[in-house]
Design goal:
3 helices, about 140 residues, 5 strands, Nucleotidyltransferase, domain 5, alpha/beta, single chain, 5-stranded mixed sheet
Length: about 140
């Protein structure tokens, strides 16, 4: 008796719809994601009228809290001495004194702490110093 061998059908997996779903999910998450700039300190910036400065990804940022504590690029300093602030600024900038330096001070921060931040930045050789503010709540 001679048996015929049946041909086996090739098994194939159709992944076109799977790829379509992955791309749709990717697009959905990209569109629905909000890109916030989370901060470690809460600052109530002073109000000022004027045009907004474009964001600089390589800017050095000094934060001054309401208690007069310093933060450099959202990293707390071990103390509030000007020497420590100067060392942190130089470390973050990598010696590039042409980078823009932004001072974000709380509206109720001690005036001396803000002046210390400005003076230390000037002593470190930074000439492009900007003060961060927010628009008035009245929307003028």
């Amino acid at each position: 008796m001679k048996f015929r061998t049946r041909r086996r059908e090739e098994i194939s997996v159709e992944i076109t719809s799977l790829i379509d779903m992955v791309f749709l999910l990717l697009i959905f998450f990209l569109v629905s994601t909000t890109f916030n700039r989370p901060t470690q300190i809460v600052l109530n910036l002073p109000e000022a009228n004027g045009e907004a400065m474009p964001a600089q990804p390589t800017a050095v940022e000094i934060g001054v809290t309401a208690k007069g504590e310093f933060f450099v690029n959202r990293q707390a300093l071990v103390n509030n001495l000007p020497e420590t602030l100067k060392t942190a600024i130089e470390k973050v900038s990598g010696g590039d004194r042409k980078l823009p330096l932004v001072i974000s001070a709380d509206a109720t921060a001690p005036y001396q702490a803000v002046v210390t931040a400005m003076d230390t930045a000037g002593q470190a050789g930074f000439a492009n110093i900007t003060m961060a503010t927010q628009k008035p709540k009245g929307g003028q």
